[in-house]
């Protein structure tokens, strides 16, 4: 195989079988890398269903603490697509990967991620500032498709888990994956995760609208109802979490909202509007550091409109990756 999917997981017994079944419906057998600190029988459930399972003990309480590097090489394929245990790829993404990685000179690809949450029984996608998505905007990009042998791994929280690389393409806006954390974990579980990250020194309040979308208005999220028909079976099978919100003081809620808005504004300045999908497709074949050279050439020969847009896109892309 030229690529495989691997899934790092811990304490996911409530939903892991649902995702495994969905992968198998598509003819896919992911490799599950189970955190050895998992204590709810996740590994036993996977092994009982004949899944590909290995275990690993990370050096910290987050997936980047060695799990990504271990799983990337344990997959034993030239390319890997890493999906968390609460994420699932779109059909368009899966269909695009095989041909793309046979031809590309890139070592990795950024993939749009749709952040989903529930409000009043309806499922919405958050497009809050910094997590924009769509055919004419730079989406919320996650570096998940890559060649492990071409990379240097690190253990920085909330990152891809590896350095660079300078050669990196971008998948189209329809080639995305969904994030279901807010649909399967209770607010109390998500708050516990925030507190764990705060203890590790990560400023988790800046992602409060991602962890606790319930505290923010639909207007803040610029929320839309996405077309989720292809994952309908997953959504219908998901267990209903306890939606009881922990009690927060007005001061804490205000601090979280302010931090999230500030972070979103910073991200928005980096992730400006992209003029057209053709620029994203161009990145499949031209490394981002060469985009500015192509832009200069276009301007030099008199094609100033596309040239200036391409220049701005390359500058924003470089700036955005500095926030990783």
Q: What features would you describe in this structure?
A:
The structure is a single chain. With 324 residues, the protein is α/β, with parallel strands linked by helices. The protein has one domain (86-324). The chain is built from 13 helices and 10 strands.
What summary fits the major beta sheet? 10 strands, mixed
The percentage of residues in β strands lies in 15-25%
Order of helices and strands: EHEHEHEEHEEEEEHHHHHHHHH
Q: How confident overall, as mean pLDDT?
A: 85
Shape: globular
Features:
324 residues; alpha/beta; 10-stranded mixed sheet; 10 strands; globular; disordered C terminus
Short précis:
With 324 residues, the chain is α/β, with parallel strands linked by helices.
Q: SSE layout and pairings?
A:
Elements lengths: L2 E7 L6 H10 L5 E5 L6 H7 L3 E5 L10 H8 L4 E4 L4 E3 L1 H13 L4 E12 L2 E5 L14 E6 L21 E3 L6 E3 L1 H4 L2 H13 L8 H4 L6 H4 L10 H6 L12 H21 L6 H6 L5 H13 L3 H18 L3
Helix pairs in contact: 12-13
